[in-house]
Amino acid sequence: MCETMDFFERYKNLKEKYEEKKTKPKVIVVGRSNVGKSTFVRLMTGRKDIRVGKKPGVTLKINEYDMGEYILVDMPGFGYMAGLPKKVQEKIKDEIVHYIEEHADEIAAAVQIIDTKSFFEIVERWKGRGEIPIDLEMFDFITDLKISPILVANKMDKIKKEEWDAVLDGICEYLKCQPPWHQWKFIVPAILKEGKGIEEIKKKILERVRLFKKLRGIE
After folding, report:
1. Domain-located, residue 6
2. For 92-106, what is each residue's pLDDT tens digit?
3. How many distinct structural domains can be found in the chain?
4. What InterPro entries does the database record attribute to this sequence?
5. Which residues are known binding-site members for Mg(2+)?
6. What does the pLDDT look like over 12-50, one tens digit per residue?
7. pTM of the full predicted structure?
8. Which letter, b or e, does each residue of 20-33 get, where b requires 16 or more Cβ atoms within 10 Å of its Cβ?
9. Cβ contacts of 99 within 8 Å, gap of 6 or more
10. Which of 97, 121, 179, 214 could be a cystine partner for 169, CB 3.0 to 4.6 Å?
11. Do the domain assignments include residue 2?
């Protein structure tokens, strides 16, 4: 949650723990299926061979891309995936959690992408079943590990422009971050299919990567 996100202190601790380790930082990309992760990775890497589709569950394995200063890690989508048994979906989710836990000390930032249009409906549906909404669970998991988040509120074109602030403030409330959303520098509204928001995301990634490297003594 927002009140516990002391990432600067975490970076200082990592410098001592990894004084001799000179690996590139990782930046992970997480999100439910069909929120725009593959589109984001294509924009970041410039690769045309990354599959993008309307059906959930296009990415089913962990993929790593060397971005020069850091490694971009594209995680499979979690939650509903078309054509996959629930048991397989749970296995994929477990693999995501295991990877993040195992590599937490190497991760400079986590880019979590959400579908802004469906976010509220899905959260309320899960809460109505007495379950923790998966988007909120992932955000809590990331921040509990003291990994610096970048929350990409994608598909903002589905929201009326005059409602953007109210919608983003509402997301803050679900994340237990006091509105207004502008004060939280980790939130980026985006329309990834049009490339909107990508430059701001790149900027935030590099800020976190360079701070991470500086405090760990990595050239």
Report:
1. no
2. 788 899 999 999 999
3. 1
4. G_ENGB_dom, GTP-bd, GTP-bd_ribosome_bio_YsxC, P-loop_NTPase
5. 38, 59
6. 565 555 544 557 999 999 999 889 999 999 999 997 655
7. 0.85
8. eeeebbbbbbbbbb
9. 28, 62, 73, 75
10. 179
11. no
